[in-house]
């Protein structure tokens, strides 16, 4: 895996698995915006001038403060110019979130001064809860910390489990114990209903890890990806 060093913000690569070659790391969950930092941007030393660098720097600063030496961020830790690397990353994404020591969920449209337990405030209406990829980023990690736009903590997946379950329709045991076997395929599919992805293929790709399947990544196939996902689940 390719990480950002939380102190130097330089890339470092490790081989192996979590605890065996892969060091403890923090991982970022967020919704993409304009001018995100790519792998090439960071290698070319252009990232500091981009809007998305605020998230990169903020995540690394928090991880370093909390004692994590490495950070993984999907915008810049994958070289998306390599189709092989992109395919491996998408097929491994659920595992990478599952194996993270902590997941920082950055909700850029939420104010830290609000009470997240009240349905009327911005936490319940955050865009983060509407995106396809953030479902696995919510479920896979053991610890998820919700952060507001100012990087202050709102709560955790555990402390806000009831609220998050109501917002997402996700079962409580799936959130608190990561026991997906308690639920049918139809129930898990319902958790993804209404969530959106930028590309139609990602509606399927973002669910592969939750259902424990792997398949080739073929951007351009459109909705055929979801048909292939269903076949893999049936197998």
Automatic annotation (TrEMBL):
InterPro entries: HET. It holds the Pfam family HET. Residues 25-119 form the Heterokaryon incompatibility domain. This is HET-domain-containing protein. It comes from Canariomyces notabilis.
